[in-house]
């Protein structure tokens, strides 16, 4: 067969409410371009990013859940073979934050041993973020970790 151009392949899902910046995050991460205009994703969108970690090539296949969240559910097909899930919410929207719990619950239903990452659209800094972080810790499962990303600057803190 053909030689693989990677050592490991990981499938990551990005989920969260519409409009919280999932697609921007995906674009930014995969192609390092930021598109200011917001277009509702139709169909399944995934991007590939290859990174080198300790001399090994790791290929990340990042799936955007493509507007499915309107139906309040994402089919189990999406979750099949997933290694990690990035849950994105908007720090300025209480509703999108509340929905994180629902997403995490759904992930627990569909994935056994998956790494959960909480991403947030950091539109406001410091004060608000730290209060949100306290709330987040309250329901973050033990094996999750939290990263803050500002989609526009692509800072992973």
Automatic annotation (TrEMBL):
A molecular function (GO) term? GTPase activity
Superkingdom, taxonomy of origin: Eukaryota
* Keyword GTP-binding recorded: yes
Keywords in alphabetical order: GTP-binding, Nucleotide-binding
SMART domains on file:
RAB, RAS, RHO
What InterPro entries does the entry give? P-loop_NTPase, Rab, Small_GTP-bd, Small_GTPase
Which PANTHER family does this entry report, sorted A to Z?
A: RAS-RELATED PROTEIN RAB (PTHR47977)
Q: Do you know which NCBIfam families this protein is assigned to?
A: small_GTP (TIGR00231)
Question: What is this protein's record name?
Answer: Uncharacterized protein
């Amino acid at each position: 067969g053909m030689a693989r151009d990677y050592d490991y392949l990981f499938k990551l899902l990005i989920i969260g409410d519409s409009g919280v910046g999932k697609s921007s995050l995906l674009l930014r991460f995969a192609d390092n371009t930021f598109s200011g205009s917001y277009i509702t994703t139709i169909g399944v969108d995934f991007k590939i990013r290859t990174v080198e970690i300790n001399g090994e090539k790791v290929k990340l296949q990042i799936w955007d859940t493509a507007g499915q969240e309107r139906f309040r559910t994402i089919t189990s097909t999406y979750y099949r073979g997933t290694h990690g899930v990035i849950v994105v919410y908007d720090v300025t929207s209480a509703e999108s934050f509340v929905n994180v719990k629902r997403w995490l619950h759904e992930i627990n239903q569909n994935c056994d041993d998956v790494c959960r990452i909480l991403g947030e659209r950091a539109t406001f800094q410091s004060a608000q973020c730290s209060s949100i972080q306290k709330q987040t810790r309250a329901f973050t499962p033990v094996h999750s970790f939290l990263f803050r990303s500002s989609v526009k600057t692509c800072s992973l803190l």
